[in-house]
Amino acid sequence: MFLPQLKYPLHTFSGRSIDFSRRVAVMAVVNRTPDSFYDAGSTFGLDQAVNASLHAVDAGADWVDIGGVPFSPGPALSWREEAERVVPVIAKLRAQSDVVISVDTFLPEVARAAIDAGADVINDTTGFSHPQMAQVVAETGVHVVITHSLAEPRTIYPRPQYQDVIGEVREYLQRKLTHARETGISGEKIIIDPGHDLNKNTRHTLDLTAGFSAIAELGYPALAAVSNKDFIGETLDLPKQERMLGSMVAATMCIMGGARVIRMHNIPESVQTVRLIEAAAGWREPAYQIHNMSEVNPPAHR
């Protein structure tokens, strides 16, 4: 198991602190969109989105990521309409839980509205595509997830080409880290994400999964967003609703390579996966120990 030397292991959010040198955070995905990648709009309603968020917390999620616009190509949505989707969910969830809350957006106006409603993190899957986003993060002092992607937001990027996908993603993230720090974002507020499947084909994403340690070596907590993605479906020839087991394997590979946040749909299974890895690493105790513990489970009389 690769243990990255984190520059800032302890991260403090509004209601919780996470020591990423000894923890892997499970981030639950809740999309308030009618055309979301995985749930096909089942959490588009406000009550459904809030309930899904609270159920994820009850199932052990450390973090809830709320989105109002999918990453996939499509027509632009005004920032006001996007904010109207995510802000009420954030506000209601914050009123009921101290869970870490992120908003999945690339628009600075949405980011500000989400922060005002109680969001702890801006999850920008476009790598600061909007020039004002880094400034918003710096001014408000929230966390940010810096993600590798190449296309303009919600546009097609046909047949992405890399000579060295791991090296190129790493170099991109290093540039963005430099930009973030120069803008005034504190290092203890930064998470990095190599962007599984984002402007990458299945071979590229498999290489990133197997070589995740090269991303974790940058010294910032690294996020792996692998849940039910196309690279799993194409590798195993499975539709979206049958990719849960592959998602757990991919998440485990990334954690063993140094990932410290996993972005997932299947929360109970993800929490079990993380807790077993943490226990094997010596970061947490088993729930109980009876097996071959003679003082607890004495041998039967012969």
Parts with pLDDT < 50 across at least 5 consecutive residues: none
N-C termini distance: 42 Å
**CATH class designation:** Alpha Beta
CATH superfamily: Dihydropteroate synthase-like
Helix count, DSSP H or I runs of 4 or more residues: 10
> What spatial form do the alpha-carbon principal axes imply?
globular
Q: Average pLDDT value?
A: 93
How helix-rich are the residues, as a percent range?
25-40%
Return Rg in Å.
19 Å
SSE sequence, one letter per element: EEEHEHEHEHEHEHHEHHEH
**Could you say which structural class the secondary elements and strand pairing correspond to?**
alpha/beta
Count of distinct structural domains: 1
Q: What is the topological layout?
A:
Layout: E1 10-12, E2 17-19, E3 25-31, H1 46-58, E4 63-67, H2 79-96, E5 100-104, H3 108-117, E6 121-124, H4 133-140, E7 143-147, H5 165-183, E8 190-193, H6 202-210, H7 213-216, E9 223-224, H8 230-236, H9 244-256, E10 261-264, H10 267-280
Parallel strand pairs: 3-4, 3-10, 4-5, 5-6, 6-7, 7-8, 9-10
Antiparallel strand pairs: 1-2
Helix pairs in contact: 1-2, 2-3, 3-4, 6-8, 9-10
